């Protein structure tokens, strides 16, 4: 993510859902986690939603500046000898207290559960801990995830050899 100075962040794929126990363990090592499978996301360049989660305030803060990513900024994902270039199109905020919101984050078309994906998309997700705490909201789930997440959503615009 050139706009925020994040280069060569290791993204570890795993079978699961965003911010579950295995994904949290990956994030706690300072890596980003990318759930895959029926309730997770897809691989880079595949039609659907590639979900990538990383810590904002701990474990090296790899997504420390994610909230400042803007519409039009690019995210480059290197995998299998290719660079997948995604352009950010919007920001979503979700609540971990809402099953509906969690479904919006992981939907094949981010924000639109039940809609069939027709193109590759990406959702970059991190906590809204500073914002929640500033508002007096100290709720967290059993894994320590705060109530709110900040999601940057993008679409694939280019693929080139790395």
How do the strands line up in the largest sheet? 3-6-7-5-4
Terminal Cα span:
15 Å
Identify the CATH class: Mainly Beta
CATH domain topology: Sortase, Chain: A
Main beta sheet, described? 5 strands, mixed
What is the CA-atom radius of gyration, in angstroms? Answer: 14 Å
Bin the helical content. 10-25%
Number of helical stretches of at least 4 residues: 3
Strand content: 35-45%
Order of H and E elements: EHEEEEHEHE
Strand tally: 7
SSE-based structural type: mainly beta
Give the full name of the CATH homologous superfamily. Sortase
Instruction: Compute the average pLDDT.
Output: 94
Short description:
With 162 residues, this protein is mainly beta.
Description of the molecule:
The protein contains three helices and seven strands. By secondary structure, the chain is mainly beta. It has a single domain, classed as Sortase (Sortase, Chain: A), CATH 2.40.260.10. Helix 1 links the parallel strand 1 (11-15) and strand 2 (32-36).
Lay out the secondary structure.
Layout: E1 11-15, H1 21-28, E2 32-36, E3 48-53, E4 74-79, E5 82-95, H2 99-106, E6 120-127, H3 129-134, E7 148-161
Parallel strand pairs: 1-2, 3-6
Antiparallel strand pairs: 4-5, 5-7, 6-7
List keywords for this structure.
five-stranded mixed sheet; 36% strand; 7 strands; Sortase, Chain: A
